[in-house]
Write a structure and sequence with these properties.
The protein is built from 20 helices and no strands. By secondary structure, the chain is mainly alpha-helical. The chain has one domain: Sodium:dicarboxylate symporter (Proton glutamate symport protein). Helix 3 crosses helix 9 and helix 4 runs antiparallel to helix 19. It is a multi-pass membrane protein.
Length: 433
């Protein structure tokens, strides 16, 4: 009887490591550094580079509403368990409210202790105090009405994330109620989602140029020297951000069973990108893809991450709290602890539903100041010159906070492949073959 001899196939040759210069994070960092150099040493050139960042953000905005719709719809309708959807939503919203409240408290305490605005004496009484065009103050009932779009098409056209989210959840619940009859539509939504991610993949190739253009314009317009007078506020704000990472995100990450440093390393390309563009929308598709790759169920990612973009603005809350009190100190506005508690309550409302686009925080800050009826809205002009520097830090914090939030809710729902999670985090993100 003949004997079958099995010849083992030779082991596959290991894939050569990707050159460091092809890493998107390295390319974005290089773009930021080049933008600083051009903006500082060739400002006449830097003033004409903003269009690179604007084009990039417009390309992202072009599809982000549809991506949120597809992600939420596919995530919820695939579950077909509306009880689970409601449980995830409630848990996520409770988490968001607790964490953003902690952020506001940290911001208020530190800025009161260090008094960054005490050395600035600005008299705006000749401007009528509240400014020439104060923002309209909205009550809670107006906020609730604003959640519901008068037209779904209008919500997508205006890029209102909250309204898009409300429509997407309703559409997904209706689709889930159809059972097996929803399969063709669900397949179509999944195909559209993959198509949009392909577009984003191509757009991301110009991310280093976008970072270069945005930073180059900022430095050329305001210069490095003009930041000296407001350097204390910048230092205090970055200290506040650091404290938030140490006192809130680090222990919360430990509770979720992950290392915060490994999470930041895994999302390093997206975090570096928002440093240049100050736009959290620009990385939403990549965050969705990476969180699912970490082993978080699509149903959790599809509901928690888009909701976090509207309700979990950790960094923006730090910004609102610190800058509001700074402007009160700079203008000599008497803002006692009772008034600051009222400010905190106002911020808990006005900080929700931001668009996540660079510059939107200024509009919400104006709304917040006008709601206090004390801090002059015109005083916002004091921080316009350093807003880009501050926004880089708070958008960075928003992204990190949203990633941690998704992991925490995933833990509560037992919706994470723990083996895959730790394997991916230990290895660090590498481009899929």
């Amino acid at each position: 009887m003949s004997e079958t001899v099995t010849i083992d196939a030779p082991p596959a040759a290991p894939k050569p490591p990707t050159p460091f210069y092809r890493d998107l994070a390295v390319q974005v960092l290089a773009g930021v550094a080049l933008g600083v150099l051009v903006g500082n040493y060739a400002p006449s050139v830097g003033r004409h580079t903003q269009f690179l960042g604007d084009i990039f953000i417009h390309l992202i905005q072009m599809v982000v509403g549809l991506i949120i719709f597809c992600t939420v719809t596919h995530g919820i309708a695939s579950v077909r368990d509306l009880g689970k959807v409601g449980r995830i939503a409630v848990r996520a919203l409770v988490y968001f409210e607790v964490i953003t409240t902690a952020a506001l408290i940290i911001g208020l305490v530190v800025v009161n202790v260090l008094h960054p605005g005490s050395g600035v004496h600005i008299d705006l009484s000749h401007n009528g105090g509240a400014g020439t065009a104060p923002a309209k103050s909205e009550g809670f009932d107006d906020f609730l009405v604003g959640l519901v779009p008068t037209s779904a098409v209008q919500a997508f056209a205006q890029g209102d994330i909250l309204q898009v989210l409300v429509f997407s959840v309703l559409f997904a619940c209706g689709l889930a109620s159809l059972g097996e009859r929803s399969a063709p539509v669900l397949e179509l939504v999944g195909t559209v989602q993959k198509t949009l991610f392909w577009i984003i993949g191509k757009v991301m190739r110009i991310a280093p140029l976008a970072a270069f253009g945005a930073i180059g314009y900022t430095v050329s317009k305001y210069g490095l020297g003009t930041l000296t007078s407001l350097g204390k506020l910048i230092g205090v704000f970055y200290l506040i951000v650091l404290l938030f990472f140490l006192l809130v995100l680090w222990p919360v990450s430990r509770y979720a069973g992950v290392s915060l440093l490994k999470v930041l390393r895994y999302f390093r390309a997206e975090l570096l990108l928002v440093l240049g563009t100050s736009s959290s929308e620009s990385v939403f598709p990549q965050l969705t893809s990476k969180l699912e790759r970490l082993g978080v169920e699509q149903s959790v990612v599809g509901l928690v991450l888009p909701t976090a973009y509207s309700f979990n603005h950790d960094g923006t809350c730090l910004y609102f709290a610190s800058v509001s009190v700074f402007l009160a100190q700079a203008t000599g506005t008497d803002l006692g602890w009772q008034a600051q508690i009222g400010l905190l309550l106002i911020l808990l409302l006005t900080s929700k539903g931001g668009a996540g686009v660079s510059g939107s925080a200024i509009a919400v800050l104006a709304l917040t100041l006008s709601s206090t009826h004390k801090i002059p809205v015109d005083s916002i002009a004091l921080v316009l010159g350093i807003h880009s520097i501050l926004s880089a830090a708070f958008v960075f914090t928003n992204i990190a906070g949203n990633c941690v939030a998704t992991l925490v809710v995933g833990k509560w729902e037992n919706a994470i492949d723990r083996v895959r999670l730790h394997k991916e985090l230990d290895a660090g993100f590498t481009t899929a073959a």
